[in-house]
Structures are given as structure tokens and as C-alpha cells.
Amino acid sequence: MNNRYDVVIAGAGPAGGQCARDLVARGYDVVVLETESEDEFPRQSNKSTAGTFPSMMASFGIPDDVVMQYTDNVVLESPTDHYVQEQPGAVLEFADFKRYLVEDGRDGGAEYLFDARVTAPIMENGEIVGVRYNGDEEVYGDVVIDATGPSAPLAKKLDVVDLKRENHAIGIEYEFEGIDIDRPGFADLRDAMMLRLDHEIAPGGYSWIFHTGEDTAKVGLCYIQNEHHSRYAKDGHTVDDYLEHWLETDPRFANATRLEGKQHRGSAHIQLPERMHTDRFLAIGDTVPTVDPLWGEGINKCMQSGRVAAVAVDSCLKHGLEPTAENLEVYDTLWHRDVAPNQRKRLLMTQLLYLAPNERYDQFMEDLHRLDEETLAAANNGNILALAKLFDIDDAPLLARFAKQQLKLGQLL
Q1: Contact between residue 92 and residue 67 where contact means Cβ atoms under 8 Å apart
Q2: Which residues make Cβ contacts (< 8 Å) with residue 210, sequence separation at least 6?
Q3: How many Å apart are CA 102 and CA 105, to the nearest integer?
Q4: Are 204 and 223 contacting, i.e. CB atoms less than 8 angstroms apart?
């Protein structure tokens, strides 16, 4: 086996897979190392709700045959109300989607090594020149990319990212059949992706039902383990306990049964990245995660991250430049411009959203009915004027408490 490449990528998820696709399309020799075995891939890493929008499908050439269900609407629920927005979407079969990225990358010339657990960078003269995997195996590249998600074995050892426990998001999801998709008193979830804001179910986070056809759906929840979660959490309750509580109390699940082998777990560290690159190295995808406050769009963000990383690498190597931190700086620029614009404002909005009490979520649904969709989209992108339209005088105590928390953390704008 060749052990020298133009680019070495650790991790075969959406970010790593898309980065490999883009790089081989530009003619580079690329190897992707993946911890899981090929026969079981993806198993442990199959963690996404896999909800996405047509823009992602079109931008990255994703085929229809990895889609479980096309949807017409996005639904936001509060404990007693809901809001429906017409917005086409797609719920992916995430395993098929990830396998497609591998197959397409291979067809383009990328080499994939499965059962290859990356453990450490190989350093020469203070710079990374390759990675060590499976104990003593080695592979070398002009540029090394960490796309391993929260484990981040390379980014951590290179001191590129500092993943803080206080903003650690954890989630769990099952796939079910026998769900009452159009239950009286609730929103019609046929051909819809639903996100619910309710601290009884997901304290400091959200839960979801994504319709996947007939009476089947993906059902799960996620919350960020920080002060917002602690404010509403029940002592001793785990993420599994909250999901069980929802399944036991929501009448839509009265006759639902879990589909065998369709359980997914995941985690991420939701925070502002201080930096994402150094000499000969980039961190992409959920190693430096970002989310939209309302819609999430984690898949799209990972794919975009992989794409702009490929652009940054190409901008160096095609001109014969050394991939120094200075020459790879374009990656950070493109990330903040194209992947996560207004990231600080959007992160603050996400934190504020999960701090609000359940009563405010009900009011939020009423607010959405009086506002136009453009305002909601602008607020999701961190537009200050659009955000201001979501608040009124009664929110003063909530905003004051949030400001106090942020000042304590040194994070307020």
C-alpha cells in the first residue's frame, strides 16, 4: 500500500467524505482513514437525524435513492401550540448517504482504509507530516485533515481546538412504526419534519419527529449540557430517560414500536472555534461544529466545511505553495463567510432559545404566526433587526438573565 499522499483525511463522515470527493475531482491523491469496519459502516457513527433541504442535495449532487422521504413542511411545536412553514425537505437514510459518499469518492480515485483508528499526529520540525493509526501504522501527506468529530484526536494534540464540556450536546434517536402521524390536536406530520421546544422532554434542547413514510418516523431529542439544561433538568435523568418519558406521555406514540437496529446516538461540542487550522493541518465538520439556531442543518454545515477545506488545500497545492498556516488561512475565511456567517450571533440566539421557559415557547408560536417567513429566516441567520422582532417588553427579565450569564462567561457581544 502507498503510504504517501497529497492529503490524508481522518474520518469518513459527511465532512471527510465530501472533502475527499472534491479533492480527487481536482486530481489529488487522497486517503481517508475510518475507524469502523467496512462491513458495518456506518454503525457507531450513524448518528444523524438526517434531515436536510433541497439546497444541500443540489449543491453536492446527492442522489434521490438515499432519501427515505421527501417532506413538504417544517413544523415547530411548543408544549401547547405549533407553527407550520412550507419548506421542502428530505429525510435521508443516513447510512446509505454516507456509503454513497464513500463509493463516489472511490470512483473518483480516493483510497479508503477502514478498521483504521487514527491515534496521533506524526510530527517533524514542529509540523504535522502524517498520522499514526492502529498503534504503529503510519501514513503521510502534504496536508492532514481531522474530520473525526468530537473525538478530534489530531486537533486536540495539535492544540487547534479546545472542546469545552460545558457546551457538550448529546442526542438519541430511534426509528419507529405505528406512530399516529396525523393525531387530532397536533400538527399534521405527514410529509413533515417537526422540531419541538419543550423542557419536559428536552431540557435546554429540542426533540423531533421526522416522517419517513406511512406510519414510520425518526424520533429523538438532543440537549446541550450547560446552565440552560441544568435550570430545567430533573435530577438523575439521562437522555434515555427523557426519551422514554416522551414516548410514554405523547399519545402519538401509544401504538408505536421501535424498529430493530435503528438506534442512533451522537454528541458534539457547540462553541465558537478559536481557530481551525495550523501548518499543514485543517479541522473540519463536527470537529469544529456549527448549527443553525432553528433548523440545525448539521449535515449541510459538515458538507460545506469539507468543501471549503478542499478549496483551501487546492489554493496552496495547485500553485506549489507550502501549506503553512498563513497559506491555509483562506479556510478560516471561507468557513466564517460561507459555512457559518454571523456565527457568534447565531450561537447566542441558540443559547437564548433554550433558556426561555415553556410558556415563552407557546408565545413564540404566536409570534411566528404574525411574522413573515423572511423575518424568521433572517433571525436564523443572526440578523439583529430580525431578532429584535421576536422579543417584547415582557422578555426583559429573560434577556437580563441571559446577559448576566454571558457577561459571566465573557461571551456577550
Answers
A1: yes
A2: 49, 50, 51, 69, 71, 91, 193, 194, 217, 218, 219
A3: 5
A4: yes
Q: CB count, 10 Å around CB of 47?
A: 22
Return the DSSP state at 182.
T
CA distance 198 to 176: 21
69, β-bridge pairs = 91
Set of cell numbers at residue 279: 501548518
In the three-class reduction of DSSP (H, G, I as helix; E, B as strand; rest coil), residue 254 is classed as coil
Residue identified by cell 448529546 is 170
Locate 148 and state its grid cell: 473525526
Please report which helix (H) or strand (E) contains residue 52, including its range: strand 51-52
Phi, psi for residue 194 in degrees, rounded to 5 = -115, 135
Beta carbons within 10 angstroms of residue 331's beta carbon = 26
Whole-number pLDDT of residue 293: 57
Residue with cell 457559518: 340
The cell for 202 is 428536552
pLDDT attached to residue 413 = 42
Match 481531522 to its residue by C-alpha cell: 146
DSSP letter string, 228-293: HHHHHPPTT--HHHHHHHHHHH-GGGTT-EEEEEEEEEEEEE-S--S--EETTEEE-GGGS---BT
Q: pLDDT tens for residues 47-60?
A: 567 888 888 899 99
- Would you report the helix, strand and coil content of the chain in percent, each value rounded to 5? 40, 30, 35
pLDDT digits (tens, 9 = 90+) for 86-100: 989 999 998 999 999
Torsion sign over Cα 142, 14, 382, 396: negative
Q: Which residue has the cell 492544540?
A: 159
Please give the single-letter amino acid code of residue 31.
V
Pairing relation of β-strands 67-77 and 30-33?
unpaired
Beta-sheet pairing, 257-269 with 168-177? antiparallel
Q: Which pTM does this prediction carry? A: 0.88
d(CA 299, CA 305): 10
Q: Which of 272, 143, 298, 158 lies closest to 220 in space, CA to CA?
A: 298
Q: Which of 95, 334, 77 is nearest to 221 (CA)?
A: 77
In a 13 Å sphere around the CA of 146, the CA atoms on its Cβ side amount to 32
Q: Across residues 334-338, what is the average pLDDT?
A: 90
Contact assessment for residue 283 and residue 151, using Cβ atoms and an 8 Å cutoff: no
For the purposes of burial, counting CB atoms within 10 Å of the CB of 391, is it exposed (0-12), middle (13-18) or buried (19 or more)? Answer: middle
Q: Cα–Cα distance between 107 and 87 in angstroms, integer?
A: 33
